[in-house]
Design brief:
Layout lengths: L1 H14 L50
């Protein structure tokens, strides 16, 4: 019984690693494609788009914690 539970848990974890199809017509969200400014590809026309970037965001993670 314990072995079956481990196998089932491993299968569920690996299922989460399946390939995501960006820009797929079967996507369940309007957020598809890439957002690279002028180089954006497969852009969804339902999303708001800015003509130019507003700025840059930096994230600093505390590595000493």
């Amino acid at each position: 019984m314990k072995k079956q539970a481990i196998v089932l848990a491993a299968a569920l974890l690996l299922f989460g690693c399946s390939k995501m199809e960006l820009g797929s017509q079967g996507a369940k969200s309007v957020a598809t494609g890439s957002a690279g400014g002028a180089a954006a590809t497969n852009v969804n026309s339902q999303l708001e788009r800015c003509a130019e970037p507003f700025g840059t965001l930096a994230v600093n993670e505390d590595h000493t914690a």
